[in-house]
Structures are given as structure tokens and as C-alpha cells.
Specification:
9-stranded mixed sheet, 8-stranded antiparallel sheet, mainly beta, about 300 residues
Length: about 300
């Protein structure tokens, strides 16, 4: 069941904050669908409300049953300006408009788990404030926009507690930090539906995703999200060393639907495979019309000599 945005107007609201130090120690880093980030800049929440608070510096504030709590600020802002060569989007399809999207909905079936639990793999769909791709680089990224905010529904393997697929809704900013909803454990074959929608209030967004029996939700209130001109689906990895760390079966994003200014858009997806030039298998993302994207994993690649 997809929730009505109006019904949760007093529900989850969002936030952001962070830090200040451009370098990121891998040992203290958390993998996200965007890449690695300092662990104290990533927060999970089961609160009913998340909000941006700017008093005394930007930070996440969450509410549980009307009781507001400020989360600790992270110490290293702009941590995502250096994305490790082993982290980033391995393949993606994007579509842009000149104004803003109001919603992205669709579905994805959970693929077979990787043969090896090495690193993290993500299958994600989202909207963001600027056309930027975390392709995975070993050098600092000079082109991160002044503000980059992302709303994503993402499958993740492994889950937070072991070798299983899970689902989270994410709000990520490249400069300030990230917050995600409570994890929902999944199994291969589960059919996941997702809805990222704007409320009548231009700054309020609902992220809702799950199966018919288990869902996860995040409601985001951030004035910087008034314009969201890029939609995308992607395969992302973090410290996956070889083909065994990718799903053992193909996956498809289906029933994709986009609205912009109350008008249904028919996307012409721009598909990019191996944006960093690095492939683990012969993974390949292809578009089948406007509503379907297929991800084939392929076979292990031979070692280069």
C-alpha cells in the first residue's frame, strides 16, 4: 500500500548536517548507495519525523511521539568529495527535465544473493537536485554541486545483520550527511514497490517502499529539495572485489512512472555502463522502452594481464 503524502504531513520530516574535513578514513566509513562516508555522518531512524534544523549549524533532528532530539553532528563535512575507486555507481540510467520531477514510482524484484559476502552492493532508484554521478574515483571530485540532495529507495546486500537482502529509504546529501529509514529484511524473489512523491508543500517528500506485507518509510522536509530535475536507477557497489560479490541473477526495474509538474513524462533513459571504466563482471544495464530497465550481470571477467 502506498501512503498518501497528505496523511503523513505531521509525520516524518527531514534534516541534514555535517562536518568539516575533506578526507575519509576507510576504517571509520559506512557504505551508502552514494559511496563511503564517515560513520558519524550516517544515521538510521525509526522516528516518526526527521527535520532539517539550522539553528547553531545544520543537523538532523528527529521526533518520536512529539519528543524532538538533535542527532550528533558529523565531524567531516564534504566527506563524499573523495569517493574511493571501489565505491560508486557501476551502471545507471538517468533522465533529466529542465524543471523538476514530482514523483518516481516503480518496482523491482529481489535477485539471488551474491555468491560471496564481500563488500556491499545496492540496487537503487531515486531523484536528486543535480545531474551528478558518483562513478568511483581515486582522486578528489571537483565537480560536486554546491548542494547535492538525493532521495532513494535502495536494496542492499548484505543487510545490517548478515547475509540477506534488505530495503531502506535514504535521504543523502553530498556535503552534509545521510539518514535512512528502518531496514526491512528481504528474500530473493520478493516484489518491491517504491514511491518517491512530493506533497503539495514543495519541500515535503515521502519515500515509501516495500512488499505487500512489510514496508519502510521516510518523510523529508528540506527546502533545498524544491527542484529535483534528475531521475535514475542504478547498480552501486562499495568494496566489492570481484564478480562473486554481485547478484547471481538478473534484476529489472519495472512499471517505472515519472511525473513533472502534474504531467506524466515518457522518459528516454540515458544508459551508462561502467562509468568509471571498471567492471567486475560483464554487468550491463539496458532500457526496454520507457517503463523497464534490465540489469544483466553476465559472466566473470578474465583477469587482465
Amino acid at each position: 500500500t502506498i501512503m498518501n503524502v497528505r496523511a503523513v504531513r505531521a509525520g516524518l520530516l527531514l534534516v541534514v548536517v555535517c562536518c568539516q574535513a575533506p578526507h575519509l578514513a576507510r576504517a571509520a566509513a559506512t557504505p551508502t548507495p552514494f559511496g563511503f562516508v564517515d560513520a558519524d555522518c550516517v544515521h538510521g531512524t525509526g522516528a516518526d519525523t526527521v527535520r532539517i534544523t539550522e539553528t547553531g549549524g545544520w543537523h538532523f533532528t528527529v521526533s518520536a511521539k512529539g519528543q524532538w532530539t538533535a542527532l550528533p553532528r558529523c565531524k567531516n563535512p564534504n566527506a563524499w568529495r573523495e569517493v574511493g575507486v571501489a565505491a560508486g555507481w557501476s551502471a545507471y540510467a538517468a533522465y533529466n527535465v529542465s524543471t523538476t520531477f514530482d514523483s518516481l514510482t516503480g518496482a523491482v524484484d529481489v535477485p539471488e544473493a551474491p555468491a560471496a559476502s564481500s563488500g556491499h552492493v545496492f540496487l537503487l532508484a531515486g531523484l536528486q537536485t543535480a545531474a551528478f554521478v558518483p562513478a568511483g574515483r581515486a582522486t578528489p571530485i571537483p565537480s560536486v554541486p554546491p548542494y547535492l540532495g538525493m532521495l532513494q529507495a535502495s536494496l542492499q546486500y548484505p543487510g545490517d545483520s548478515g547475509g540477506y537482502w534488505s530495503l531502506k529509504a535514504w535521504f543523502i546529501t553530498a556535503q552534509q550527511g545521510a539518514i535512512h529509514s528502518e531496514e526491512v529484511a528481504l528474500k530473493p524473489g520478493d516484489h518491491i514497490m517504491f514511491n518517491i512523491s512530493r506533497a503539495p508543500d514543495a519541500a515535503l517528500w515521502l519515500l515509501h517502499a516495500g512488499t505487500t506485507t512489510a514496508t519502510t518509510t521516510l518523510v523529508v522536509d528540506d527546502k533545498h529539495l524544491a527542484l529535483m530535475p534528475q531521475a535514475y536507477c542504478a547498480l552501486a557497489t562499495a568494496d566489492v572485489p570481484d564478480c562473486a560479490g554481485l547478484p547471481r541473477s538478473a534484476a529489472s526495474f519495472t512499471d517505472l512512472s515519472l511525473k513533472s509538474e502534474n504531467t506524466v513524462k515518457i522518459p528516454q533513459w540515458r544508459v551508462v555502463n561502467a562509468p568509471s571504466g571498471r567492471r567486475l563482471c560483464d554487468e550491463q544495464l539496458t532500457a526496454d522502452g520507457a517503463r523497464t530497465l534490465h540489469l544483466d550481470i553476465g559472466r566473470p571477467r578474465k583477469a587482465e594481464t
